[in-house]
Amino acid sequence: MFSRRNRRTRRPSSPALLAAWEALDAGDVPGALRQVRAAGEGPPLAEVALVVGRAAGEAGFTDLAGASAALAAAPEDARALYDFGFACVERGVSDLAIAPLREALHRSGGALPVLRELVSAYEDEGRHREAVAELVRHEDRLADWPDRYLLVFNAVLAGDLELARRRHALLSDPEDARWQPARERQNRMLARAADAGRAGPLDAADLRGWQYVMGGTVLGTLSPYGFDAGMNGRYAWLQDSPDLCLRGLLRLRTLLSATGVRPRSVSLLPDRDSRILGLAAAEVLDLPAEPFAPGRTDTVVVAYDLDGLAAHDGGPALIGELFDRVPGQVLHAHACCWTDPPAVTPDSAALLHQSVVAPWGEQLLPNAGGRLERGPADERPEAEIAAEVTGADPAADDGDGDGPADGDAGFTAFATAVAGTWLRGDRTRVRSAGPVPGSRFA
Length: 442
Prior knowledge:
The chain is an alpha/beta fold. It is built from 20 helices and 10 strands.
């Protein structure tokens, strides 16, 4: 923690970091961190540590504050660089860890603990290509577990399946049993890649294919807007509609049919959004609806938005029960956030978004003067709204005309191709958006 005297005498000289310092003077810690990020990796690390240390102290992060003070005092010391980077990763600011960890790796002569922490920071930021490059650069010194495993994992998420397959074939079986689940998870990921590669190009524009490779989720629909602008089939801010809900449920029905999965019921989750969609799903799938029970087999569990479920009373416990689903229990989520994926990975997702408002939520509507204002939520009974969903128009929106066709025949072919590996994953959460263009992950 810096004293008031130190704060007056030790000020950063970089303009961006000086702006961050002034934000801290005003008590704006988030604003200060935004300024530090905006400065990139150009400013001296001692000055970055000075600002981050003050911010950490004011936030009560004594570990990061102490590591920052040590780095500010000895910016060329490998241990100080590593400790600062480690503390940044632990405190959820991995982007600030990369430059000091890279410098620590250089000054430590390529020490493997430093390399592993740097790879962890790259992974947190979705910078998989850089993680691969760093691991390849030190490959002659890597251990199979975890280092070459990490090389394969990041190669997959960078879209380099050729490299991933070559290195995966050379991996020995782990002697430590703790790594065996990771080995099996990687086997399944590459098996899914083989299926998805038969179903489509699995190139940088194949969002549905990569979504399946990463977590085993079959993506039902692609956004028809902003494809060439980088959205690549994902939505940004979305005001959802009954039409999109029905289209997603029909894709779920196609998926179940094409893969030979025959559920006997639809399981209703307790939050209002999920109950509405679950009642509609029961009608579309011609199945009885019943409240969710963790051990029930041969059922489709329907969530509107898993993050919304998590915010419901008892939601965290329900999310925990959905991690280890019993055989024959399929989780369908209508809306999944792609910039911050839900804690549990669904087997089927209708669409990817950054922010979504349910069709029956407080949507923005034009008032009498033509200006947008937030309208009230639809308080009608759940069954009545569900009937509106099942009676909607599921025809695809033409969008802006830049995206590829997302016809039923192509989706059916994909679902048929992945039937052998679907529902055989471990529902591992992968934060990355994958090797798709137009995002910070690409």
